[in-house]
Amino acid sequence: MGIRTLISSTALLFLTSTLSEPGASAVSLLPEGELADRLGAALKVLRSVPTGRSLLERGRKRFHLADTASLRSLFKWSDVSRTDAVLTRHYDPGSQTEVRERLVTVYLKKNQSFDDLVLDVAHEMTHAAGEPNWDPYDPHLTAVRYIRASLEGPGGEVDALANECRVSLELSARYGTSAHRCERYRLGHSQNQVDRVKIRKDFYRMGAFHKEILQALGSEAASFPDLSTESPTLFSSTGNAPYPLALLREFQEINGVACSNTRRRLSLVAQNSGRSDPSRSPASEGALGSQPTSAPSDAKTETFLKLRCTQD
């Protein structure tokens, strides 16, 4: 996984990505004659197994689409698979109202086998269809909360890998494809049940990065008792580090953008109102959404700046 920060007026985003380890399959899932439409074929394969159908239906409802085939509009090709959720805040200094928009785009690695593409779609759809479980402008958002939410929260990395592996095992049972990447997580001889405890623990395997994450988190490292020196098996493909460290770096970048955006917006408010102290004229910190919101209390903005922006 990695980080991209896009600013449109004041915008913030988070993203996640699938595993970087390539898979292999004994049987190709790509139907003959559909080489020109890999994405459409991948969606068709996913609809043929229970977990895949459930994920696509969840995505259809999340984005208010007529059918699961319309999910194609969310996807773009890229060098690495990831899901971008871009939060844009449009603020009107005159009315002191704000509109928040959240735009989700799923990027899929173009040069990979078809079987891996199917699993990538399942993985990224878990992220895309999930509701936001953190607000970048929450005064009380910390690195610990961000890392835990991104890994263990609804639609996070544990969920995504669990769903990816359920799909892999179901495809193996139906089509005879290889599920070697997910065999270590299979529960007994089940055709689609996976060991979430093992998945979660694997995300905290740091190997040579263990000392770095402990130093970076300081006393807060105690919040993650599963951090271990075992060699990482799940490595961020865009963050170039095991997930906890990649997420910590991502949080630091997100935090810097949020602080910069808030200060810039407060300056606009101060200019519009003629006040000399912009921190006394806050803009909205309302919930994610696309509806206008009014300005919150001065105290909330001051708390945000005090808790989140003292070291950026």
Describe this structure as you would to a colleague.
This protein has one domain (10-308). Helix 2 packs across helix 3 (114-129), helix 2 packs across helix 5 and helix 4 (143-152) packs across helix 8 (243-273). It is 40% helix and 12% strand. Strands 1, 2, 3, 4 and 5 form a five-stranded mixed β-sheet that branches. Residues 1-26 and 276-296 have low confidence and may be disordered. It is α+β, with helices and mostly antiparallel strands and 312 residues long. It is built from nine helices and five strands.
In short:
With 312 residues, the chain is an alpha+beta fold. It has helices at 38-46, 50-62, 114-129, 143-152, 157-175, 196-203, 210-217, 243-273, 298-308; strands spanning 10-16, 75-78, 82-92, 97-109, 292-294.
SSE layout and pairing:
Layout: E1 10-16, H1 38-46, H2 50-62, E2 75-78, E3 82-92, E4 97-109, H3 114-129, H4 143-152, H5 157-175, H6 196-203, H7 210-217, H8 243-273, E5 292-294, H9 298-308
Helix pairs in contact: 1-3, 2-3, 2-5, 3-5, 4-8, 5-6
Q: What are the main properties of this structure?
A:
alpha+beta; five-stranded mixed beta sheet; 312 residues; globular; disordered N terminus
Radius of gyration: 21 Å
Structural class: alpha+beta
Poorly predicted residue ranges: 1-26, 276-296
Indicate the overall shape. globular
The percentage of residues in β strands lies in: 5-15%
Q: What is the overall pLDDT average?
A: 82
| Distance between the amino and carboxyl termini | 23 Å
What count of structural domains? Answer: 1
Q: How many helices in DSSP terms?
A: 9
Helix fraction bin? 40-55%
